Amino acid sequence: MKYTSGFGLPAEVVFDVERAFRLLSKKWFFVGTRGDVPTPRDYFTFDVLGDEFTLLHGADGVIRCFVNRCAHQSARILKEATGSCGPNLVCPNHQWTYHIDSGALRAASMMGQGFMETDVARRSRLTEVALHEVEGMLFACLGDEPSQVEVEEMSTVLAPYTGPFALERGGYKLAHHQREVVPASWLMVMINNRECCHCRQNHRGLLELFDPSSFNGATSASYDVMMAAGIERWEQLGRRWEEHAFTKSDSVRVARYPLSDGWKSITFDGAPASRKLIGGWEDYDASTLSIWFNPNAWVHFTSDHIATNWVLPIDADHCTLYSSWIVREDAVEGVDYELEHLIDVWRVTNAEDVDLCEAMTNGAKSSYYQPGPFAPDEQFCTQFCDWYMRYSAEGPGANEATS
Ligand code: FES
Ligand SMILES: [Fe+2]
Q1: φ, ψ at 369 (rounded to 5°)
Q2: Which ligand is nearest to the CA of 93?
Q3: The model scores a pTM over 0.90
Q4: Is 94 in the pocket of ligand 1 (CB under 6 A)?
Q5: Of the bound ligands, which one is closest to the alpha carbon of residue 91?
Q6: Which of 167, 184, 216, 401 could form a disulfide with 249 if both were Cys (CB 3.0 to 4.6 A apart)?
Q7: Whose CA is nearest to atom 4 of ligand 1?
């Protein structure tokens, strides 16, 4: 079945894992932030299409991405989702020991005397994958030649918005991380994320925080009033608010949106999520700085926390939905924030979306499936599908930034 712009993806695209792998080998994809691995030795594991990886904050302060498999007999080295490792990475199987900054083998005591001087030992190291940090956000690429133009452009676009948060300089901590295996195609999760017309019926709680027209380009009279008040306030405070739509390499969109009157953060009751402000804010602001990344993430910066969500494929019809909540380093759970209160909005909203994504995935497996048209103001669904079709296609050229 042929793809038509403005319609959903054909089933043979939705369930094509080779195509997904090709895309993730050409384009940078979001894998977390410096807030997920804030201090040296912190790690964060994730899976992509049957391979296991880990982010690792080195003793030298650099965050790297390694394949989470031992060079000896392929055992998984780090078993937890997140945590802190020792001064070296030690495989639990036969204790081969690796340098956390380089992935080089340091010791393999069971291999006998003289082994470390052999060529085999010199060649045995953890496999490193391309990782680039943009404004404290981390992007990996499975291919050997990821585009530097694209990450430089992302940095240029985002710095005026995210600069005051200085996520790249640290000072944050991971308040909570959640990951869920979802019985849905990762592409259905992304299309659902870019869509707004399901929100009114399916995210009743979220509609308390946001005017329903916030996210889809349409406006209402009530939204216009909120936005105008927000713009006046943000201009006085020197905060960037203008939407930066997907352009050039098409991988990032950023916008500041007002929260409902009286709301101080993204919480169901409008009360602050944390008592410790971030991002240079001197008071709570009823807004979110929201960023959408192709192919796989959406991130919300408020004046007291950062909430990140991203999705990665496991196989044709399963994916992992990762979510992290980042607060100021000195915020104390039970004193400055209550965990349930901090995480509730995205925990509940994501659960509502998961059901929809599973239903759409099952529908796409049906012999009666036909990709349907997106609503007229769902241009971000169309943008995502066009982008995916273009950059996941076979052949050269998909690495190039385009205007
Ligand atoms: S598999 Fe890791 S040390 Fe043997
Ligand atoms: Fe949703």
Answers
A1: -65, 135
A2: 1
A3: yes
A4: yes
A5: 1
A6: 401
A7: 94
Paired tokens of 270:
């409008």
Closest ligand 1 atom number to CA of residue 108: 3
For residue 138, give the H/E element and its range: strand 137-141
Separation between Cα atoms, residue 380 and residue 217, nearest integer Å: 9
Q: Could you tell me the distance, in angstroms and rounded to a whole number, from the CA of residue 159 to the centre of ligand 1?
A: 42
The Cα 65–Cα 69 span in angstroms is 12
- How far is Cα 158 from Cα 254, in angstroms, rounded to an integer? 8
CB 72 near ligand 1, within 6 Å: yes
**Domain extents in the chain:** 11-28+183-391
N- to C-terminal Cα separation, the chain: 28
With respect to CATH, is domain 11-28+183-391 assigned 3.90.380.10?
yes
User: pLDDT per position in the chain (403 positions), as tens?
Assistant: 799 999 999 999 999 999 999 999 999 999 999 999 999 999 999 999 999 999 999 999 999 999 999 999 999 999 999 999 999 999 999 999 999 999 999 999 999 999 999 999 999 999 999 999 999 999 999 999 899 999 999 999 999 999 999 999 999 999 999 999 999 999 999 999 999 888 888 888 888 898 877 666 567 788 888 899 999 999 999 999 999 887 766 889 999 999 998 999 999 999 999 999 999 999 999 999 999 999 999 999 999 999 999 999 999 999 999 999 999 999 999 999 999 999 999 999 999 999 999 999 999 999 999 999 999 888 899 999 999 999 999 976 544 443 3
Alpha carbon nearest to ligand 1 atom 1, residue: 73
In a mutational test of the pocket of ligand 1, which residue from 52, 67, 68, 70 has the highest number of ligand atoms less than 8 Å from its CB?
70
**45 class by beta-carbon count within 10 Å (0-12 exposed, 13-18 middle, 19+ buried):** buried
> Which residue, chain included where needed, has tokens 């406006």?
219
Pocket flag, ligand 1, residue 76 (CB < 6 Å): no
Q: Is the CB of 96 under 6 A from ligand 1?
A: yes
233-267 burial: b if 16+ Cβ within 10 Å, else e: ebeeeebbbeeeebeebbbbbbbbbbbeeebbbbb
CB of residue 84 inside a 6 A radius of ligand 1 = no
Asked whether 70 lines ligand 1 (CB < 6 A), one says yes
The best mutation among 72, 105, 106, 110 to test binding of ligand 1, ranked by most ligand atoms within 8 Å of the C-beta, falls on 72
